[in-house]
Amino acid sequence: MYQSPIHVIGIGSLGKLFAHSLRKCHPELPITLLFHRQSLVDDWDKAGRCIEVVRDGKSDRQSGFNYEYVQQGRGEIRNLICATKTYGTVDAIRPLKERLGPSSTVLFVQNGIGTIDEVTSQVFSQPSSRPNFLAGIVNHGVYATSPFSCVFASPYNVVIGSVSSSTSESPKSKVANTNPLALWLSDCPNLSTELVSPEKLLHIQLMKLSVNAVINPLSAIFDVLNGEVFRRTPIRAIVRPLIAEISAVIEAMLRLKCLHADSIVAGTFAPKNLENYVSEVGAKAAKNSSSMRQDMRAGRRTEIDYINAYIVKQGRNFGIECPLNETLVRLVKEKRLVTDSQVSGVFGI
Ligand SMILES: NC(=O)C1=CN([C@@H]2O[C@H](COP(=O)(O)OP(=O)(O)OC[C@H]3O[C@@H](n4cnc5c(N)ncnc54)[C@H](OP(=O)(O)O)[C@@H]3O)[C@@H](O)[C@H]2O)C=CC1
Ligand SMILES: CC(C)(CO)C(=O)C(=O)O
């Protein structure tokens, strides 16, 4: 029944959730976990070769996975879920290049935008060698408690669609709802997956990018929970001009893309509407500590290159200056904390 097994690379919080959800819903589906470190083989044995997901305090352990050490793996990969952090994507996909081809599908489940362009140009520069690319926008909240256990802390939904990189032609598969990987995922009750057209996917990706470009860096440099970004007057003062930059860049991108995608709803990315949307999400996730704040606090690399730096880069293509985004990129990269009284000096507002 299942002719095309699934491989998962990036067995972190989301990788575990996706593998566990697929196993639970499709007990017969062959699922292979791809380990990039030899130590994961020992961790896997210690975990009893199970993935544990804890939801509402209840633990559920799923077994029956295959695993491969990436360097030793052989054979075609038909379906791949890539759940690495954005900045680790090219390094994760490159060793799999010879195993992926035009009849493979790769689903990227990541925040931000830009990884598919990098994978296209740095790994699959020949269009004839390129797999189908899907992107998943994940609105769930999951965190890992050990190498093969995680807590499904805030369930919401996943949106999946076909995507084309800006350096390639239009998506090979116009709709995700004929793709087996997308269909298997959409069967999983835990994931609440919606399959959408490439146009709608882009629209939702840009909405999520806007949210992440405001809440993530501001919560990180001021070291506050999400809700404080919209409550604290000095931080709020940055939100409006920051959104004006984001809006100008996204509208320029859409004007270009709308030649091909006229279903994108006009006006959604106008500054006022975008501000309302971003603050609504901020209110819903007010008590969350953003992923960027957590990364910065832990001294880890952040995903700023795929969020605000992406906006700065796109802005340059359209001749749009983005000084606030540039400042945020710099501060986050320097892991610099800012106090309320430093706002006017640092941001010039
Ligand atoms: N967690 C969440 O709730 C959500 C996350 N996201 C996004 O999803 C993406 C993944 O996030 P998350 O699961 O939290 O991240 P994690 O850091 O938990 O997982 C990433 C995993 O990728 C592994 N990895 C790193 N380099 C490679 C490589 N070269 N080959 C294979 N695996 C590699 C890491 O292993 P190692 O331990 O060696 O670093 C780690 O296990 C991010 O873009 C994030 O923003 C989006 C929405 C919600
Ligand atoms: C929506 C938000 C800001 C929730 O915390 C998020 O996606 C993140 O932290 O990366």
CATH C-level class of the largest domain is Alpha Beta
Give the fraction of residues assigned to helices. 40-55%
CATH structural fold name of the largest domain: Rossmann fold
What binds here, in terms of ligands, is: NADPH dihydro-nicotinamide-adenine-dinucleotide phosphate, ketopantoate
Give the H and E element order. Answer: EHEHEEEEHEHEEEEHEHHHHHHHH
Task: Indicate the structural class.
Answer: alpha/beta
Report the principal-axis shape: globular
Rg over C-alpha atoms, rounded to the nearest angstrom: 20 Å
The parts where pLDDT drops under 50 for at least 5 residues are 259-263
What would CATH call the architecture of the largest domain? 3-Layer(aba) Sandwich
Please name the fourth-level CATH homologous superfamily of the largest domain: NAD(P)-binding Rossmann-like Domain
Which sequence of strands runs across the widest sheet? 5-2-1-6-7-8-11-12
How would a textbook summarize the main sheet? 8 strands, mixed
Would you count the extended β strands for me?
Answer: 12
Family: Belongs to the ketopantoate reductase family.
Domain Ketopantoate reductase N-terminal: 6-163
GO molecular function, one term: NADP binding
Function: Catalyzes the NADPH-dependent reduction of ketopantoate into pantoic acid.
Question: What layout of secondary structure does this protein have?
Answer:
Layout (H helix, E strand, L loop, with lengths): L5 E4 L3 H13 L5 E5 L3 H8 L4 E5 L2 E5 L3 E4 L9 E4 L6 H5 L11 E5 L5 H8 L9 E7 L2 E6 L2 E6 L3 E5 L17 H7 L6 E4 L1 H25 L5 H4 L1 H25 L13 H14 L6 H7 L10 H10 L5 H12 L8 H5 L2
Parallel strand pairs: 1-2, 1-6, 2-5, 3-10, 6-7, 7-8, 11-12
Antiparallel strand pairs: 3-4, 8-11, 9-10
Helix pairs in contact: 6-8, 6-9, 6-10, 6-12, 8-11, 11-12
The protein binds NADPH dihydro-nicotinamide-adenine-dinucleotide phosphate (NDP) and ketopantoate.
